[in-house]
TrEMBL record:
This is Lon protease homolog, mitochondrial. It comes from Arachis hypogaea (Peanut). The lineage of its organism: Eukaryota, Viridiplantae, Streptophyta, Embryophyta, Tracheophyta. Its EC number is 3.4.21.53. ATP binds at G475, P476, P477, G478, V479, G480, K481, T482. Coiled coil: none annotated. The keyword Ribosomal protein does not apply.
Amino acid sequence: MLKLITSSSSRIHHHRFPSAAAVTALRPVAESSSPLLRVLNSLGGLGRRNGNSVGRLFFCSGSGSGDGSDQAVDAEVKSTESGAADEAQAKASSAIVSTYPRPEDYLTVLALPLPHRPLFPGFYMPIYVKDPKLLAALQESRERQAPYAGAFLLKDDPGADPSIVSGSETEKSVYDLKGKELFNRLHEVGTLAQISSIHGEQVILIGHRRLRITEMVSEDPLTVKVDHLKDKPYNKDDDLIKATSFEVISTLRDVLKTSSLWRDHVQTYTKHIGDFTYPKLADFGAAISGANKLQCQEVLEELDVYKRLKLTLELVKKEMEISKIQESIAKAIEEKISGEQRRYLLNEQLKAIKKELGLETDDKTALTSKFRERIEPKREKCPPHVLQVIDEELTKLQLLEASSSEFSVTRNYLDWLTALPWGEYSDENFDVTRAQGILDEDHYGLTDVKERILEFIAVGKLRGTSQGKIICLSGPPGVGKTSIGRSIARALNRKFFRFSVGGLADVAEIKGHRRTYIGAMPGKMVQCLKNVGTANPLVLIDEIDKLGRGHAGDPASALLELLDPEQNANFLDHYLDVPIDLSKVLFVCTANVVEMIPNPLLDRMEVVAIAGYITDEKMHIARDYLEKSTREACGIKPEQVEVTDAALLALIENYCREAGVRNLQKHIEKIYRKIALQLVRKGETKATVASVQSVEAKRVEEDNVESHPDPNQKESSMVADSRSDEDKEIETTTIEKVLVDKSNIADYVGKPVFHAERIYDQTPIGVVMGLAWTAMGGSTLYIETTLVEEGDGKGALNLTGQLGDVMKESAQIAHTIARRILLEKEPENHFFANSKLHLHVPAGATPKDGPSAGCTMTTSLLSLAMKKPVKKDLAMTGEVTLTGKILPIGGVKEKTIAARRSEVKTIVFPSANRRDFDELAPNVKEGLDVHFVDDFMQIFDLAFDDDNSQHSEKSVSL
C-alpha cells in the first residue's frame, strides 16, 4: 500500500499518486538537474524557494500506524537532510536522493524485513522496528554517517493458512523471527535503503538501488553480504520498449478519466514522459499500483527493462479496470440517490400543488375526516359516553404533532373505537322450522343441543328480541362440539367467531393491554366485534376446560365478567377503557371434562352434555355425511366406488370405537385416498394404450395423404371413425367400480386395532363384567377375583390393575360387605375369614379410578366364595356403601352404549339413574333388560338366582 506523509499529517488513500503538498513536505535533498527530478518538480507545480531547488521523493508505506505519527516522520525527514544540501547538489545528476558516502560502497548491511510491500528505488517507506538490538544498530549506523541498510520483502510462512497469509502477518510476528529463520524467510532481491530518520520505533527508509543477498554475516541483529544490481543494458530507441512505455502512459491517462484523485498528477507526469528513464517509469508504475506484494516483488527482481515495463503494464491495466468498476459503482449509486431525491422533490411539489388547489389535505385532517365519516352513520345508536370519548380524542389528535409517539397511539385508539359496530345488529332468524332443517342438515343426532337452540329461538320469537346466553357443550373429542357451533350461528343467522383458550395464560388476551404499553392491542372480544361487524354474533370459546394460569394472571377469573349475563352489558376492555354491551352475544363454550372448569365460571354456564355416538348413529353419520364429503374432496364419482354397510360396520367396531367420529373420518379419508390411487393407476395404463393407438392412427392418415391425395378424405374419415370407436371402448372400460367390503377392508386401513371387549362368553366363577366411563366414551371391564391361599390367609386381599385410591377403597368396602352377606346367606361358610384373595382389573396399563365398580367387586367376591358364576350376559355399575345401599353414578348413556357394543342383554343401574336412562333415545335402549336397584341384595338375587324376575321389583324390559 502507498501513502504520503505531509507536514499536516494528511494522507491520500487509494494509493495512486502523491499530492504536491505531500511532496513538498520533504526538505531539499538534491538539485533538480536530473530529468526525473525536473519532472517531479513539474508534478508539484513548484519552482525554487529561498534560492534552493526542491527535490521530491515518493513514498511507499510499510506499516503506517494512522495515529498522527506522520507529522513526526515529516519533521525528522526535514531535519536530517538539512546538513547535506551542498553535497547533494554536487551529485544530483546521478542520484534521486542525497547521499553521504557512496551507496555502492556498502557491501555488508543490516537486513530489515518488510512484511507488506517491497521498497522501490526513489520512494520512501516508514517501518516499525520492535527489536531493541536492531534499532540500536540502526541508530549507531546513522551516527557513524553510514545510514544504510538492506530492505527485503518477507516471504509468506509456508506452514500458515493460505487464506490468511498474504498481507496479514503483523510486524510483531516479523520481529519474532531471528537469525537463520529470518534469513531463510527473506527474498534474495531487495533495496538499499537510506535511514532518513528514527523516531521511537518508527524508521523512515529511502530506497536507492537494488540488492541481492549473497550470504549471512551475523544473526543478531541479522547482517548480510550483498551485491549491488544494475539494470541490463537496453536500447533507448527500441520500438518494443517505446511502445510498452507509451502504453503505460496511455493507461495512466485512462486512469485519470475515472479517478479525479490522481488526475492532476498523472497529467503532469505524462506531459514530461520524455524526461523519464524507462527503468524509473517501470518502478514508478509498480510502486503506485495497488498490486499485491508478490507482484511488486516480481517487478523489483526483474533487471530486464523491457520485461519490467511489461510487468508494470499488467499492474496498471488492472488498476484501470478497478478504477472503471469503482466509477460504475459510484455512478450507479449516484443515479439511484439522485433519482430518489428527484422523486421526493416532485412528490413534495405535487403535494403542495394539490394542497393549494384544495385537492388534498394534510395527514391529520385526512385522518380526522376518515374517523368522523366512519362514526357518523353510527352516531344515533352509539352510546353518549363513547361519542364523548371519540370527540375528545379527535380534538387531541389535531393538537399533536404527526411525528410524536402519542400521535400514533391516539390514531390507533380512534381506529379501534370508530371501527366497532356500536348498536349494529344482524337480523335474526326466528323460524323454528328453518332452524331445525339447518341443524339436521349439518349434524346427525345431538338432540339435546338442537332442542336447546330451538327453545332459544322460540323465546326470542315470543319476546320479539333475543338475549345473550352462555351455553357449554361438554363431551368427548370428535362428537361435533365445535362444528355444531357454526351450524347454530347459521341457523340463527348470526355472524360466527371462534377463538380457543386452551393453554391461555395471559389475561390481556381477554381484557386487552393498557394503551400505555408499546404494541398494545384490545382483547379477543373487541377484535371479534370489529371482525364480524355486528354486536350480536355467536362467539365460540373453544377448550374452556384447558385454561392455563401463569404470572400474567388468571384468565378464568377474567372470563367471569365476560360470561356473566348480569355484567357483560358493561364489559370493560383495558385498551378501549369504555363499557361495551355484550348482552346480545350468544356465547357457546366447549369442554371435554366439565370438572376441569372452575366452579365460579361453570356456575354461569348452562351445560349441555353431548355423549358419544352408538354404532347405529356412527353408521348414519358415516354414510350420510363423512363418506359423501370425503368422496367429493377426493374427486371420485359415486359410480366409481362402493363402500358397503358391512365395511363401515367393521370399520366402526374394529378401528374406531371412540365416542366421536373424528377418527372414523380419518379412516374413511384413508380408504378414499387409496381408491383414488387405484383409479389413477388404472387410468394411466388405459391412457397410454389410447395414446399409442392415436399416434398410429395419425401416422396411417398421414401416409394415406401422401400416397393417395384424392381419396384421402374417405380413408382418413374411416381411420378417425375406427379410432373414435376404440377411444369409446377404452373410455367405457376405464370406469371400473371399486368395491370395499368387510373382506378387504384391511387392505385399505390395515390390521384391526380393537378386538372384542368381551373376554368370556360365559363368565367363570369370581368374574363379573362392569361398566366404566372414560373421556373417550364408555367401556366394559371385568373384575376378576381368585383364591391365593386357603386356611391361614387371615382374610387378606391383594389389589392389582393400576387402581386409584377411590377404587381401592371401593374394593375394601366390597370385601367387608361380601363377608357380611356371606355370613347371612351361608353361615357355615368361613371362606373370607381364612383365605387370602387377589382381586385384579384387566388392562393393567390403563389407570382406573372411581367408586362405580363397588357393586361389581362385591359380586365378584361373593361368586368366588359361593363357587357360583353370575348370570350370563350380565353387566352392572353402581357405588355401594357399607350398609349395602347402591348410590347413583354418571355416564349412563356411555355405559349403555358400551354394554350394547359387548352384546350384553341385562344391565343393572342404581335406581337414582332411572331418569337418566329414560332420557335416552329408543334405539339406544332397544333390546336391553335393565334393572334399577337400591340395595345390593337385589343385585345378589339377580346375579345368583336363576329365577331372578320375582326378586327384582324395578325391572324394565325394552
